Amino acid sequence: MSNKIFAKYLMTFTFVIYAAIVSLLNGCSAEAPPAAAEKPNVSVQTVQPQTQALTTELAGRTQAFMVAEIRPQVSGIVQQRLFVEGAEVKAGQPLYQLDSATYKATLAQAQATLAKAR
Q1: What's the angle, vertex CA 46, arms to CA 44 and CA 52, rounded to 5?
Q2: How would you write the chain as a 3-class SS string?
Q3: Contact 74, 51 (CB under 8 A)
Q4: Is 76 left (phi over 0), alpha (psi -120 to 50) or beta?
């Protein structure tokens, strides 16, 4: 059995010696070193400071912060609108002019009913 172990060690030793010899022979070759690469042509520019406006265009929607809804407190036929949409209005400012014929007829009927009741 010692012959088998000796043969194994001898094969390993022989392989290591051959590998070392091949490495030494490859390192001793007389090849010329590779030529240096040609330098690339580059251009140089001097930077000049200047102002640049920063703008960004984005798509989106806007919504009013406060919304005022105009609702009538009486019924009637609107003859004229007395404000411009989007303009400021003040408290107590008339916004619409209503047809007075309807109210005059209602008043006359109420007065007739009152006179009849007396």
Answers
A1: 125
A2: CHHHHHHHHHHHHHHHHHHHHHHHHHHCCCCCCCCCCCCCCCCCCCCCCCCCCCCCCCCCCCCCCCCCCCCCCCCCCEEEECCCCCCCCCCCCCCEEECCHHHHHHHHHHHHHHHHHC
A3: no
A4: left
Q: Per-residue pLDDT averaged across 100-104, rounded?
A: 90
The answer to whether 93 touches 81, Cβ cutoff 8 Å, is: no
Each residue's pLDDT tens digit, 47-60: 999 999 999 999 99
Type of residue at 50: Q
What would the two tokens of residue 110 be?
A: 């109420």
Distances 112 to 63, 82, 90, 108, 109 between C-alpha atoms, Å? 52, 34, 38, 6, 5
Q: How far is CA 56 from the centre of its chain?
A: 10
